[in-house]
User: Fold these one by one.
Assistant:
Number 1:
Amino acid sequence: MQYPITLVDIAGIIMAAVCVRSTVPDVQAAPRKLWRLGLPPLLGIGVSLLILAGAVVTFEHDATWMATALAGAVVGLLRGRQIAVQTDQVWGTVRTPVVYDTVIAAFCIFAIASVDGLSGLFKPGTFPRHAHMAAASALFAGYLAGRAWSLMRRAVRSPHTEIGH
């Protein structure tokens, strides 16, 4: 029996929602552990892979997915270099100024995962193909990954700053 919405679709939407939730410290300029900078990209990449796995893909779709992920990573690396980062080396916490780019990227991943997950409820052809949605989510996940990589690399090398807890 074919169901319009699968458990994989629901898992992708939940992971995307957790990805959005994990970006809240960016809009509050709240201190957080260094490893938490990598949580949104990890969840975003997972969602993108779930969408890609659910699509009937060819080599061209895989190549498109990888190219958009790399393009997003390059843009994310450049953006991560522009953001100031304060590091408390003793406690292993970091703080960045208020930025909205991660929330926007994570919300776009959530929107794509929601559309992809709920597309089974509509007649075929209403929404773009799953491979195109996977490529779009890979763009934003790559952005999050590149940005986080740049920030984490700089945070590890930055001098100690006392951050109030």
Number 2:
Amino acid sequence: MPPKKSADKRPDPPCMVCNPDFAKPGDYCPLHLNQLEHLDLQCESLFRFQRISRGSGHESYNIFLQNDADPCGRVLVAETDLENLFITILISENVNLDTTIPEYEFFKIVRTFGEQLQIRIRQEIVYSWYGNARACIEVYRIIPEQPQHWDIESRADYAAAEDEIPDPHFPQGNKNSIH
């Protein structure tokens, strides 16, 4: 009979949370990996998009922050060619994209609202609608007020309306008169 081994003392697997001495970034034990994956799923709904327009080579979305009924921004997508997109994000000044998501600190991860928004845009807009496209993204902060809406009539409608309005520089009657 072989001699009995003393209690099997294997070191705990490297984990950024419970055994950080031997862990590298991204190493987690099964328990903490499961918790991190659950947190990632929760944070997927931090931002949601609602498409408001789509046309040939362009589309736009309202951005909503989790549980908000009013949009906090807009995403404008322009297809510059089949494999390249230009995306403009207009985000309310009330949303600080540099703010860290505190729940990730437990896992020794720094993740910001901006990174989470970028992940959502990558997954839901770029990869799901455009496949293998590349995207250049510009982010602008806007003040939280309703946008102004302007309608510009066709050139023919504008000319017809202009003919109906008297010119203030000429008296009624013959416009070519010098008297």
Number 3:
Amino acid sequence: MGDLEQLHWVSAPLVAEFSAESENSDEFKLEFDRFAESDDDPLGEWLKLARARGETKESDPVLLAMTIDLHRKIDELTRFIKGEEIRRVQLTLKSRLDGLNYTHFRVETPALKTGERYYARIAMPVFPIREIGLYFVAKSEKIAELSLLHERDQKAWDSYVASRERAMIRQMKERQ
């Protein structure tokens, strides 16, 4: 455990909802797989094809990403108005994260059983804002090691950790 406490931690205002995998492993796996399918939504497919055909060369990438995200939000609102909300699996535990890095995170409330594998959802404040599903293994009552994320979610996680590290460096420089 001493080695885990020596890890480099960055603070982040994230909240994780999680449950032991053994509680409902089949439903957790289905939800985790649905998070991967969100990559293949109609707008995402259209964008991939447009890029492959070279139709986006003249487009501003930031403006294009924002427009796509706006369309996704309109689709989400339409589903909400029609009562077609996306159902998520019920998770039994919830905790703020008081530290994270590229391979681990630390929960504020000691709620983990060492050696147990968990399924979790975390709302990531990246663009576009989204929830990610992931699996982790408890290394102690408070420390979790990431064990399975979708590739795009791993990139979002790594990018978020890097941005939090940059923010911490700026704060330290301002104090000096």
